[in-house]
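Figure caption, in words: inputs first, then the predicted bound structure.
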Amino acid sequence: MDRVLKAIPKIANPNVLIGFDTADDAGVYRLSDDLALVQTVDFFTPIVDDPFTFGAIAAANSLSDVYAMGGRPISALSIVAFPADQDIDTLSEIMRGGHEKMREAGCAVLGGHSVNDPEIKFGYAVTGLIHPGQIKANAGARPGDALIFTKAVGTGVIGTALKRGIAGEAAVQTATDSMLRLNRAACETMLRFEVHGCTDVTGFGLIGHAREMALASNVTLEIEVARVPFLPGALEAAAAGAIPGGLRNNKDFASCDVENASSAHLNLLDLLYDPQTSGGLLIALPDSDAQALMTALEGAVRIGRVVPRDNKPVRIV
Ligand code: CO
Ligand code: CO
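Bound structure (cobalt (II) ion present):
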């Protein structure tokens, strides 16, 4: 995708505050001096068996990029691919789950578009509002910042274990609850602090998104693997070989930009590349504010720090 986008000529427009050239979470377009639109789109194939739950997770995941910019989602359009020969009740349940989650977020679903396709896919294009001075881009992390992460890692390996029928029920439930949880509270809490940079951890995994933040900010992100929270059952799933294709791709792509100074087990390091669905926010803010943020937001953990650019953008210790 990066290569495709690089071939597209950029059109200079002073109202494009965040465009596709910085690999940020969402685009931002200025409407006036004190108001801008945040826009993002995401859809994917089912990752859990229950259609209602899948729809709700797809909604939480689509909303996440707006929260990752510090924005407030206001409206959404659904995107549906559905097989012509499949029971339409399944689609009703997916849409019902999505609508329910959008309602919880205070985001109005205005419509959508559907196509016949052999494989179910579902998600949303989401529009949010933000003050142009409040944008939390992935560029902006500074040496001395603490790195806070707001969810646990492992939805990819647990989802793969589920597809292979080797996932424990409790692990699937905890992962599902995590994916269903909106990043709204994390967003609202971080906005009370002087946050320098923020992104959500999704398909590229913790390291992939840390790498993007490091490159955009021209710093090195140092991650303490022992502090990274993992979902219960994630390590067991990885050890049992439930490795999603995306994890391998993420590792192939990003590992050349990672210095590993830890002695952690390979399965543990692999999880740092695990593609996440509806993952947490990765926040860089002054170290002096880190404790207050963690106190204000349940589940937020300090997983590392920002240092001046070293030889690699990401260092694991
Ligand atoms: Co994102
Ligand atoms: Co995104």
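The mean pLDDT is 95.
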